[in-house]
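Submission sheet (multi-component)
Chains listed below:
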Amino acid sequence: MTREPRKTDSEPSRPPGGIGFGLQGATVRFSGKVALESLDLQLEPGAKVALIGPSGAGKTTLLRLLAGTAEPNEGDLRFTGGLSARDRLSCTGFIHQDHALVPVLRVLQNVLAGRLGRYGSLQGLRSVYFPSRESIEAVHRTLTRVGIGELLYQRTDRLSGGEQQRVAIARALYQEPRVLLCDEPVASLDPSRSRDVVQLLIELATESGATLVTSLHDERLAAQFFDRVIGLRSGRVVLDSTRDSAGEHPALSPAALEALFGLDALPGETP
Amino acid sequence: MPAPRGPLGMRALTLVIIALAGLVAARYLGLDLAGVLPRDAGKAMAADLLGAALHPALDYETEVPPGTPAFGLKILAALWQTLLFAAAAMSIALPLGLALGILASDRFWTLRTQGTRPPSALQRTLQIAVRTLIALMRSLHELLWAVLFLAALGLNSAAAVISIAIPFAGTLAKVGSEMIDETTTQPPRALVGAGARPFTALFVGVLPAAAPDLLSYAFYRFECAIRSAAVLGFFGYPTIGLYVAQSFENYQLREVWTYLYALIALVVVVEAWSRGVRRRLS
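Outcome: structure written.
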């Protein structure tokens, strides 16, 4: 194990700006089942992208490929920035569908854990269990930014689902990510809260210049907030829409959406 | 159309087999319900015991040599010794059991690979070695360990403490590894996915989630350790069991009951303490 150089909390933030991705013929299989099939995709640094498509289309797998927690079995994934494997992980914020927060810990500790990728083992432990005054202040600022500053010392498992999601967003944000990946962030929220959360994610990514990729089950939300909407079905891109100068998504036609979500099998697809 | 026949009939069969096994065992051991009732000389003894239970001694029953500490002080000192032996044993058993429990758990060995690959043959061998060690540690009761250590080391405190600590560390490790494996996989995976070291992910993402269960079980084992320490008094260690044995030999049954009540009070106090801690944590 290589020794990490000592870093302090007051160190200036990492260089801003998003990371771009290039996928060429990327195929991912899980125990023989194809999750992504020969995917070609370019994502510009700082892009704001929504992934839509039916369940099992490969949206989560694509997010995991981008996060570096899954590898393509065939094909190629390139990313800009020339980062080491670990640096890439530590500057990728991932908001999980189930939030993946540690239940017994306080909100403060859960958010502090976002920066564990910057430290060695023991220093990481210190950063979570014996945080400096500055990092507590930084966590409080982050929580305030997502609207839950008053929950700093609450136990995480005593919060509501919506509050826990804000903690998960704060943890990813505290990481100062250059890529922000979200897996169905609004799956369990009502429509007005869904819009608030998507709006917040867009704002946060825009402020830091991070690349934002999020899967959504609601294509109207995707069209309303995202410049680019990619439709996946059976592990393939069947729809790729970019917002036009009038702010519309002409490629998201009812016929295209029917082809994306419809129950009829596509040519060459095993139902 | 009638619903297809399921495997529900097996339940009744299982219950019948359990009942039959009980009957067969009772017959094989020659159990006789009359055996639980005292006979002849035992009757008088039982009566004395029950009578003494209602009138525990408040002072020594017979004349004691001058210089003997007051009865109450002697009980307090004996309880304190019992507590010391139990605490010393637990302070070895807890860290050892936790470390072995982590090494025996599946969660620990899959942190680095995030469950995408099975652990290597070497890792698997290490895990099985640890599990075997744990099984060996707890396969002997603390009293049997005490007999072994007494023979090897003589009547010294370290022997008593170690003979409690070994099986207790084994049990803590066994139950602890199961509690660790019952925690959710997502938080540590998320942390490793954000670049955290597996070691840190273990201490931040796994152990806190298991902590309330681990703590509550550790308290329970502390109670068990108090009882074991008390019983070790019968071997001659200065815990409350020693005085129970001595009074019993002198047929001072009222003193025996006072010691037993004192031991019960100690366990109740520890239980109240542990309940307070658990309530704050859960």
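Remark: The two ends of chain B are 49 Å apart (CA to CA).
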